[in-house]
Backbone:
């Protein structure tokens, strides 16, 4: 359990303690509206200001320019930027509570595997032959690192991650629970009414500072590599097909699906359930709204699209309004046709 004094917390964030006793203990981090004794919270968004007068938290991190309009029961820790300071504390708390280096006796490590310094390997993890684990990596219980796979420094594999053979994981990558890196791509050839599996002999390359969400799958290439470039963040439940290349600092929300051999540019943003057809090219900076489907390439850089097939947002919004009025438009058309036919008969 986290246990620090207010004086220590103020030192960690470089803040000034106001009110309260320096030796008061805090044990948890909490939301300001759910504050409780022994809890530490923060105030950054002005709309949460009323809660600071009600919170039961022991201390609140606030900006230096915060001026109370009524008495505050909690101690205040004044800093230049309360949001950044609390984020720093969250990172500190996360580091404080993570497992310490060491290898569980219940883990299996192949004799020729290479394990770096200060590595944590949890219970029932398997490190296969020829695998390499870089310094400072954390491999939680029930992970599998396949033969000749390589993890560079300071990677985190949460429980149940599966890294197939020959996959390459860059520095400071985070793989959430259940992620699968390097499974076979979806490759089958029609053969007299059935489908014959096409061997997938490539691998997956994750560059530095990539994060892969829970139960997300990145398939290995048929030949060559499926590549997720530096700084890219993938949410939970995403499917990346074989031979896909995703550019730098691209972000994708849950349930995105990228079909095989597609090239996605740098700094793209895809909302939830976006689908991209295979062999497409998506330019740098493209933004696709949730549930958009691209049946082909989008080559205009820094453009924004909605719908299936994707169209510009203003057109999509107008079309949506028309669709909502579709029944009444049909009835109006019927009325016009009836009146027109009556006029024709009279003529």
Residues:
């Amino acid at each position: 359990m986290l246990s620090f004094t207010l004086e220590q917390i103020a030192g960690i964030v470089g803040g000034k303690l106001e009110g309260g006793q320096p030796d008061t203990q805090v044990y948890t981090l909490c939301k300001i509206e759910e504050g409780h004794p022994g809890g530490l919270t923060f105030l950054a968004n002005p709309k949460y200001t009323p809660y600071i007068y009600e919170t039961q938290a022991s201390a609140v991190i606030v900006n230096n320019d915060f001026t109370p309009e009524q008495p505050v029961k909690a101690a205040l820790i004044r800093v230049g930027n309360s949001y950044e300071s609390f984020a720093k504390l969250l990172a500190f708390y996360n580091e404080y509570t993570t497992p310490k280096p060491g290898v569980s006796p219940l883990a299996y490590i192949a004799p020729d595997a290479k394990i770096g310094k200060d590595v944590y390997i949890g219970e029932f993890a398997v490190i296969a032959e020829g695998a390499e684990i870089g310094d400072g990596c954390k491999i939680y219980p029930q992970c599998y690192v396949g033969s000749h796979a390589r993890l560079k420094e300071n990677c985190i594999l949460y429980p149940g991650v599966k890294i197939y053979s020959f996959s390459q994981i860059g520095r400071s990558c985070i793989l959430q629970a259940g992620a699968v890196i390097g499974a076979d791509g979806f490759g089958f050839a029609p053969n007299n009414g059935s489908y014959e599996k096409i061997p997938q002999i490539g691998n997956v390359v994750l560059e530095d500072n990539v994060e892969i969400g829970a139960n997300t799958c990145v398939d290995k290439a048929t030949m060559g590599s499926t590549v997720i470039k530096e700084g890219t963040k993938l949410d939970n439940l995403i499917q990346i097909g074989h031979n896909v290349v995703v550019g730098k600092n691209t972000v994708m929300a849950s349930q995105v699906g990228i079909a095989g051999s597609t090239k996605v540019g740098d700094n793209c943003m895809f909302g939830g359930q976006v689908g991209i057809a295979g062999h497409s090219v998506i330019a740098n900076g493209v933004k696709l709204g949730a549930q958009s489907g691209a049946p082909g390439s989008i080559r205009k850089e820094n453009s924004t699209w909605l719908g299936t097939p994707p169209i510009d947002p203003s057109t999509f919004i107008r079309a949506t309004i028309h669709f909502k009025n579709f029944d009444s438009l049909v009835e109006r058309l019927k009325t016009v046709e009836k009146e027109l036919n009556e006029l024709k008969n009279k003529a």
